[in-house]
Amino acid sequence: MHHFCIDLQFCMVCLYDTVVVDVHNKMMGKTVTLHWHGLYQRYTPFMDGVQFVTQCPILHNTKFRYKFPAVPDGTFFYHSHIALQKMDGIEGSFIIREPRSIDKTAPLWDYDLPSHVIIITDWLHDMTDEKYPGFLRTNTGNFPETYLINGKNNYVYVSNNYIYAP
Questions:
Q1: Could you confirm whether the keyword Lipid biosynthesis appears in this record (predicted)?
Q2: CATH label of the domain that carries residue 146
Q3: Tens digit of pLDDT for each residue in 118-164?
Q4: 81 and 35 in contact (C-beta within 8 Å)?
Q5: Which of 44, 77, 115, 139 is deepest in the core (most CB within 10 A)?
């Protein structure tokens, strides 16, 4: 079974599924990788998404396929491992579910739905490479301006009353 939902900011799969994620980098002049935070990648080390360590970055207008087994079960997240792209919104939850038949907590709940997932992240109103061009220096003042819930916000630009969400 294959799943992925980057547009919805979260992904849920079952334990031992094969996860296949096709990334098509459409960001002009930027590279990207996806790191699966908390997954061991024991038999698939080149799917870990750490640029120049486990893989080369995905160049503009190219594609890369991540393929790995969904183990272990638990709640994790994915994020870009390039510069500050995580802060630009390339992140989301990644849940590997244990089958209900062996889940010891199954009697405690009726429904386990994607709508029950809440991920809270911080978000800057400008792209990070514009806001922090020298982000490698110390004391950058790296503080969020808004928080996102499931990748959405309600920020209103004062100058034109336009509501914008990433």
A1: no
A2: 2.60.40.420
A3: 888 777 777 777 777 665 455 556 666 777 777 777 666 555 555 55
A4: yes
A5: 77
5 part of a folded domain: no
**Cis before residue 144, ω within 30 degrees of 0?**
no
SS3 for 157?
strand
Return the amino acid letter for 120: I
Q: Are 19 and 3 in contact (CB under 8 A)?
A: yes
pLDDT digits (tens, 9 = 90+) for 87-116: 777 888 899 999 888 888 888 888 877 778
Q: What are φ and ψ of residue 131, in 5° steps?
A: -75, -40
Q: Which are the contacts of 160, defined by CB distance < 8 A and separation ≥ 6? A: none
Structural domain total, the chain? 1
Q: Say how far residue 3 (Cα) sits from the centre of its chain.
A: 14
* Residue 36 placed within a domain: yes
Phi and psi for 87 in degrees, rounded to 5?
-75, -15
